[in-house]
Amino acid sequence: MKPEQVQQARQGQHDTDELAAVQRILQLHADEPGALLPILHDVQDALGYIPADAVPVIAEAQNLSRAEVHGVVTYYHHFRSQPAGRHVIQICRAEACQSMGADALLAHAELRLGCSAHGTTKDGAFTLEPAFCLGLCASSPAMTLDEQPYARMTAKGFDALVAQTEGGRA
Ligand code: FES
């Protein structure tokens, strides 16, 4: 087998494993009408994202159109259509954090990481996501790194966190 064929075979196995996980999740919700959101949450928890191949499978099981399922996946910021990087950074963009400079912090993060919000760094180390209230409004601007909260974040503090994580290889 040529290297590209090996890679394709690996990818095919990976896709099959993912769809098998989706099927198991669908079975768990088989008796729940209108379970689209819980199913999508379970798929993302299991796989880290909602694979494009899973959309028609979920749609059929829930008696919905692909467009309806795709619409829900893209409507909610929580759901990812692509796998996340090894570390996920969320920067709050809700009102209290905005009033304390969250937009400037996000702009700094985009510059520092070299990717835009909803994007992932080229080396796959960091995914940058906007969030809408992390429950730290009194200590804004707030962010999380791999679900660990950080309050009163500054550009300098952000750079330090990134540098500590994976040696700041972004
Ligand atoms: S508004 Fe940012 S944590 Fe609540």
From TrEMBL:
Instruction: Report whether Iron-sulfur shows up as a keyword of the record.
Output: yes
- Per the annotation, how and in what number is the cofactor bound? Binds 1 [2Fe-2S] cluster.
Entry cofactors: [2Fe-2S] cluster
Residues where [2Fe-2S] cluster binds? C92, C97, C133, C137
What is the protein name stated in its UniProt record? Formate dehydrogenase subunit gamma
For the keyword Iron-sulfur, the answer is yes
Q: Which GO terms describe its molecular function?
A: 2 iron, 2 sulfur cluster binding; metal ion binding; oxidoreductase activity
Q: Where does the source fall among the domains of life?
A: Bacteria
State the organism named in the record: Variovorax gossypii
The family classification in the record reads: Belongs to the complex I 24 kDa subunit family.
